[in-house]
Specification:
The complex is a heterodimer. In chain A, 18% of the residues lie in helices and 52% in strands. Chain A is α+β, with helices and mostly antiparallel strands. The N and C termini of chain A lie close together (10 Å). Classes of the chains: A alpha+beta, B alpha+beta. Chains A and B meet through helix 3 of A and helix 1 of B.
Chain lengths: 153, 56
């Protein structure tokens, strides 16, 4: 028999997970249609803010979803059997205009790794790279420990 | 962002072709951290003086 023991992560533990990872799954929606993509991010634990570079082409599905709704969810998780940790955040995705860029933005996006999952095979000149900040309305983490007894083996 | 007078340089990313007007501290950060748009490493060669930034 398997028992799951679930606990809420502290703010420090949650920030630690977000800091040691650089990828997650971003979910968007348009009407009743969901859209999820793996993305790379940078995370400022002090401000509790995410920095994302999102790459799209003019006719891409991603572009259509990004244009439809700024509300989003981001999930980051890790597994180290028998312990599983996850962080879920929901909030608003705000585009950073080019003419609003500051030194702080340059430093934060320097922390945000190159978009590992994006299509860099095409010339970057043909891609539309937009900078976004994700301001969380909710941000929480969970830790689940799987306790297995001998009958599981 | 800084005022127009402070934007002493024009940054042109050699990789993504992004062009930005930047001040001295932004220039230093870009060299240190890479292109803010695409993440590519950049050198001082990517900067030219901004004519508008020289005006009084």
């Amino acid at each position: 028999m398997t028992l799951n023991r679930e606990t809420q992560l502290s703010r420090e533990e949650t920030d630690s997970i977000l800091g040691r990872h650089e990828t997650g799954v971003l979910s968007l929606a348009r009407e009743d249609e969901p859209y999820s993509i793996p993305i790379s991010y940078g995370y400022d634990a002090e401000e509790r803010r995410f920095y994302l570079r999102l790459v799209s082409t003019p006719e891409s599905e991603k572009r259509r979803f990004l244009a439809s709704s700024p509300h989003t969810r981001l999930v980051v998780y890790e597994e180290d059997d028998p312990i599983y940790r996850s962080v879920v955040t929901s909030g608003t995705l705000n585009e950073v205009p080019r003419d609003a860029l500051t030194v702080d933005h340059i430093e934060q996006y320097g922390e945000a790794k190159r978009p590992l999952f994006e299509i860099w095979g095409e010339s970057r000149r043909d891609l539309d790279i937009q900078l976004y900040q994700l301001e969380p309305d909710e941000l929480s983490g969970r830790r689940i420990e799987i306790e297995r007894d001998d009958t599981d083996s | 962002m800084s005022s127009e007078e402070d934007e002493e340089y024009v940054f042109l990313c050699p990789e993504c072709d992004e062009s930005l007007k930047v001040n001295d501290s932004m220039k230093e950060s870009l060299v240190d951290r890479g292109c803010v748009i695409c993440g590519t490493s950049v050198t001082l060669k990517a900067f030219t003086k901004n004519p508008a930034g020289d005006s009084p």
